[in-house]
Design brief:
The chain has 12 helices and 7 strands. It has a 5-stranded mixed β-sheet, sandwiched between helices. A two-stranded antiparallel sheet has the order 2-3. Helix 5 crosses helix 6 and helix 11 crosses helix 12. The N and C termini lie far apart (74 Å). The relative contact order is 0.10.
Length: 340
C-alpha cells in the first residue's frame, strides 16, 4: 500500500520528502558525477575499489529502459549477464533490482552499479552531503551503508539467478563506493565503505520477517487500505494492524503522525519514548502510571511502582516546602520595600 497517500487520506499527512532545493542540488551533483559517460565515477571506482585493475579508458553504458519495473528488472539482469563476461568496465546508470521482502517484491533503484573487468559487481551510492577532509557525517554514512547493503543483497539474488548451472555466480563486492561533494564544493570525492555488517544484519531481519500472507490472514475479512475509501473505514482498517508508536517513528514511517494521535488519545506512554516505556514495566498508559504513583494501584514490590511512589513523595515534599517558604519570602520582600 502507499502509506504516504493513506496518511493523507486519514488527515495526518507525513512530513517525508526532501526539499526542492535539496533535490535540485542532489540531481545536479549526480549529473556531474556521471558526466562524460561516467568517466569521473569510474575513476573513483578504480582508485577506491579496484586499483589493481586496468584503468578505465572508457566504459559501456547499456540502455536499461523498459516498460514497468518488472521489465526494467529483467533488462538490468540481462545487461549484467552480458557485461560480466565482456572483460571491460561497464556502468549501469540507475538499474532496477528486485528483492523479496516477506513474500512481496520490492523494486530498488541504486544510483549506479559498476561491472569490473574481472566480472565482479560494485554498488555506487551518490549523496549530496559533504565529505570534509575525507570524512562525512557518521550518521549519514551509516544510513547510506544500510541502504547500499540492501542493494548488495538484491544484486546477490540476481547473480545467483543468471549463473549457468554448476557455474560460479558473479561476485558482488561488499565494499561499495560512496560519492559525496568535496569540502562543500560541487567536486566529487569517493570513499570505500565496507557493508558486510549491514548486509548480515539486513539478511537476518529479512529472514525473520513475518510473511505477508500470514499478516493478511490475521486481519478481519474485507480489510482494505485503498486511499479512496471513506476515512472511517480507513481508520478502522489501520487500527486492525497492531502498532506501537514511539518518537523514533517520525523519521521512519509515513503513518507516524496518525499513530501519534492515536497514542495520545489512548494515553500510551510509548509516545514519550521507548526507554521510558521499558523503565515502566507493565504500566502501559499515563493513567496507570499516575494511579501507581498515587498508591491507588500497582504492586508495591514492583521496582517501577516503588520508584514512581518515591518520586511522587519527593515531588509532594518539594511543593510543600515551596508553599511554606512563600509567605516568608513575601514578608521579606515587603520589609525590604518598606526600608527602601
Amino acid at each position: 500500500m502507499d502509506k504516504a497517500r493513506l496518511a493523507t487520506a486519514l488527515g495526518a499527512p507525513s512530513g517525508f520528502g526532501q526539499s526542492q532545493f535539496a533535490l535540485t542540488r542532489g540531481n545536479a551533483f549526480e549529473a556531474r558525477v556521471k558526466a562524460d559517460g561516467g568517466a569521473e565515477l569510474l575513476r573513483l571506482v578504480h582508485a577506491r575499489l579496484d586499483p589493481g585493475a586496468e584503468p578505465p579508458a572508457g566504459a559501456a553504458v547499456p540502455d536499461l529502459t523498459a516498460h514497468g519495473p518488472e521489465g526494467r528488472t529483467a533488462r538490468t539482469a540481462l545487461a549484467l549477464r552480458e557485461a560480466t563476461g565482456a572483460g571491460g568496465w561497464t556502468l549501469l546508470d540507475h538499474p532496477m533490482l528486485a528483492l523479496d521482502v516477506a513474500g512481496s517484491l520490492a523494486f530498488l533503484e541504486p544510483d549506479a552499479v559498476v561491472v569490473h573487468p574481472d566480472g565482479s559487481w560494485s554498488v555506487v551510492e551518490i549523496k549530496s552531503f559533504p565529505m570534509v577532509d575525507g570524512a562525512a557525517d557518521p550518521a549519514k554514512v551509516g544510513a547510506a551503508a544500510r541502504q547500499a547493503a540492501v542493494y548488495v543483497l538484491a544484486l546477490e539474488e540476481v547473480a545467483a539467478r543468471i549463473a549457468p548451472d554448476g557455474a560460479r555466480a558473479p561476485r558482488v563486492r561488499h565494499r561499495v563506493l560512496l560519492v559525496c561533494p568535496k569540502d562543500f564544493s560541487n567536486l566529487p570525492a569517493g570513499s570505500a565503505v565496507d557493508v558486510r555488517k549491514q548486509r548480515a544484519v539486513t539478511a537476518r531481519q529479512l529472514a525473520r520477517l513475518t510473511r505477508i500472507e500470514e499478516l493478511a490472514d490475521a486481519l478481519p475479512e474485507g480489510t482494505c487500505f485503498a486511499p479512496d475509501r471513506p476515512a472511517e473505514e480507513l481508520t478502522a482498517a489501520v487500527a486492525a494492524v497492531p502498532a506501537t508508536y514511539a518518537p523514533e517513528c517520525l523519521s521512519a514511517c509515513e503513518l507516524a503522525f496518525h499513530c501519534r494521535d492515536s497514542a495520545r488519545a489512548a494515553g500510551a506512554v510509548t509516545r514519550l519514548g521507548r526507554p521510558l516505556r521499558a523503565e515502566l514495566g507493565g504500566l502501559a498508559t499515563v493513567e496507570e502510571v499516575l494511579a501507581a504513583a498515587r498508591g491507588e494501584s500497582g504492586d508495591p514490590d514492583d521496582p517501577a511502582v516503588a520508584a514512581l511512589r518515591r518520586a511522587a513523595a519527593l515531588r509532594a515534599e518539594a511543593l510543600r516546602t515551596a508553599a511554606e517558604a512563600a509567605p516568608r519570602a513575601e514578608a521579606l520582600v515587603t520589609a525590604g520595600e518598606a526600608t527602601a
